[in-house]
Amino acid sequence: MSSRFLKACLLALVLIVVTLPAFFCSSPQTVTGDAEPTSPWKNVYDTTAHYVGMQTCRTCHEEVYKTFIQTGMGQSFGAATKEKSAADFSPSHALVYDSALDYYYKPYWDKDTFYILEFRKQGKDTVHKRLQKVDYIVGSGQHTNSHIFSVNGYLYQAPITFYTQKHRWDLAPGFEKGASSRFGRLIQLECMSCHNAYPGFVQGSENKFTNVPAGIDCERCHGPGSIHVFERGNSKPVDTSKGPDYSIVNPRRLPVELQNNVCQRCHLQGIAVLNDGKNFYDFHPGMKLSEVMNVFMPQYEGAQDKMIMASHVERMKKSRCYAESGKMSCINCHNPHVSVKFTPRVQYLNACQSCHGTAAGQKQCSESMQVRAAKNNDCVTCHMPHNGSIDIPHVAVTDHYIRKRPVADTLQKKITAFLGMKCFNNDKPDAISTARGFMEFYERYTPSKNLLDSAIGYLGMQQQVESKQKQNRDYIRAYFLLNDFARVAQYADSVKPEAMNDAWTAYRIGEAYYQLQQPEKGLPWYKRATEIWPLSLDFQNKYGICLLATQKLQDALKVFNFVFGENANHISANTNLGYIYMQDGNAPMAYSYLLHAQQLDPDYEQNLINLAIWYHTNQRDGDAEKCLQHLLTKHPANEQAKAMLEDLLLHR
User: Fold this and answer.
1) pTM reported for the whole predicted model
2) d(CA 500, CA 60)
3) Is 3-16+459-650 CATH 3.30.40.10?
4) pLDDT given for residue 518 in this prediction
């Protein structure tokens, strides 16, 4: 083996980082404030209340079930069946090309099983194939069908979506312009808890589930039903024409603010910042959403028509109708038990007429009768037009920002200035939550340093209100995102790994030390991250990489075998296992893992480096050359590959 290839073999230790009509009537209000919140509804704060499932509700509410199951909520999620799918699988429609990454995607049925085939062509030859079975379909089909697959309970999103309104297949939202994670996007609890009823989530993981329900159910709006089922099964019925049945929340009887809080749990899509100690299961109808989370939205100058698809509540709250009436609720217009497809148009118009009718003192429509007649006197057509969304392509939805004369769709116009982050479910969010909103927006959407500067500024405003450990956690996150790893290490000096209870903070500290080329200091932090979240496979994988960097090959082997056992398609784990078996001299086992990683991702840099080393070591220099040339085609800045290829050609 040449000297440069021997050096490359040692350099292979430095592996790629895994970074990771109105329906409202009044009732007693929930009491919140400095004291512990209380509610007259028994299932809001009672920790013994549990979910019973929609089929239990159905036993007494069959007629409501029959209409609700046809709504977008009732049809929000289901197994991947031909009946569930709204997609067109004809040859003229069912093919998607990702021009940025050079992959084709073909969705198809093999009998009753749904597959997506990823492939790449070189001339007339197919040079890559990956076949993935689809297990679930997300979406009612009114706007989209997206697709999810399960690997041992770990859920991931497939890279293509069917856009119903445009009747076309295309890359999934967020997968465009070279941003596709292909088959690697994790479906986490935040996503699942809005697109479905509450699933069986495995604690200590990021995306593993024991069971997944089929659609949003009754208890998402009414709260856990166990108290109601017990009381109605063991005592007399409650005459709800005379008063509420307090065993279960009826949103129609909540105050307007709390009605809207039920809806905005999922229809206020933005940056959801959980309060400390809370998770996405903790909100119950009847609470203020701010008891569990604060939801921030970026605000831009000149962006009145820049809307996110599921931002209905944000848009409504911008309306004068909402601000001036003090009584505007989602269920003034919508009956959640009946699909919008079957809701008579007059229901929406009557809601408008309740304030803008002919009664004395009401603000009436100022448009000419001629124009009103041309629009069939339809308020919604003029004041709530359909608008495209900035996050979901090929989709238009009703804009709930009610304006006298909505401006034309300006989605293609340049946004002039970022104004800041606004919380739409809490007028006075605390400074640390606001800082976290800025950091989350940076990580998810816009990696601008100004966002992190703002976050650090808000952290400094909190002063003595928060504990030092909590302050450190957020400063660590901010400086980690700034790649100021030395500053992260300084903050880490004040806390021991065993005292850390936040997995992400432990991971960031470990990663900071790793980037500072101090893997021995990073190791206990990576280990702590995996103790808190033992089923975060990316955390486990990075812990294994750090073990390799500290020459603990057998310990690393155990970690990578664990990751592989949980998900045999984890690309980096396959690459790392191949590397370890190369070091052990087990060429057949090494090649098996490296080849599997290549079949999963033919462009993965570290695997191509390791494969080139394997080919060279096994006297297959032609294949090694092809590996390196392909790597440099996809990743032309890789200096290690350049040096290896130069050395290979020199000693040909």
Assistant:
1) 0.90
2) 48
3) no
4) 97
